[in-house]
Design goal:
The structure is a single chain. By secondary structure, the chain is of the alpha/beta class. The chain has one domain (2-111): Rossmann fold. Helix content is 42%, strand content 19%. The chain contains four helices and five strands, in the order E-E-H-E-H-E-H-E-H. It has helices spanning 22-31, 49-59, 73-86, 100-111, and strands at 2-6, 17-19, 34-39, 65-68, 92-94. Helix 1 (22-31) packs parallel to helix 2 and helix 2 (49-59) packs parallel to helix 3 (73-86). It is globular, with a radius of gyration of 13 Å.
Length: 112
């Protein structure tokens, strides 16, 4: 089980696999069991986080937990509404970045 952090600019938190673009993120979702997925919206001039959320809904690629760490308020709303309207019962969706306590816990798991 892995944790995935999608962002074209920010540093990847410890304990996460970094996806810098939509293609990398979707490959991880299709090929791996994903516990936490943290999404950015603005991913460069030709793609954005909604490309990922659309594929998640279309292909039923839901991880266990999804966080939206983007600074784009419009993008956050669009991704949240799309995921919320379609998510299965077992998926948790958070309209915010991951809490520091969770990031510390995951980083600590890697040290053991």
């Amino acid at each position: 089980m892995i944790h995935v952090f999608l962002d074209d600019y920010r540093a990847c938190p410890e304990g996460f696999v970094l996806a810098r673009n939509v293609e990398e993120c979707l490959l991880l979702l299709r090929e791996c069991e994903v516990d936490i997925l943290s999404l950015d919206f603005e991913l460069g001039p030709d793609e954005n986080g909604q490309d990922v959320t659309s594929a998640i809904v279309r292909e039923q690629l839901y991880p266990r937990r999804i966080y939206l760490h983007t600074s784009s308020l419009w993008g956050k709303r669009v991704m949240y509404e799309q995921l919320y309207a379609n998510k299965p019962e077992g998926t948790q969706l958070f309209n915010e970045p991951m809490p520091l306590e969770l990031l510390d816990q995951i980083a600590g798991e890697g040290e053991q």
